[in-house]
Amino acid sequence: MQSSATRAHIAYQMADKREELEASTDCLQSDAYQAILYSSLPEPEKEPARLAQEILTMLVGGSATTARVMTRITYHLISEPAILARLREELKTIVSDPFVTPALEKLEHLSYLVSLSISNFRHDLERYVRHLRSLQF
Question: Taking Cα atoms as reference points, which of 20, 22, 46 lies closest to residue 32?
Fold first, then answer.
């Protein structure tokens, strides 16, 4: 509940910043937010909620590296055969050839895969949520 409230707060603050940046004549890409905002990404990828998720991911990326998260996920998949079986069944719905990587858009719609990923990030996220609350926007 706290992290969704934090994401909503960040999304609200980012919407204000976006309006402010769009109104300014200086569109230099001086930070990651502006680089994403003024990139050629499709508009749905630039929505405040999506950008808030990306910023949280960047913050977590500093300590919860991809290797660390993948190690944790791998451990849980190996130690819990039921979780692995359920994930495999879900992946089979979009993977017809195991040598072809599915599109990210398809993977994002797999609810169990997304839940596993989020729960693994959650271990380190609370520290960053507290830090974000202390920031002045």
Answer: 46
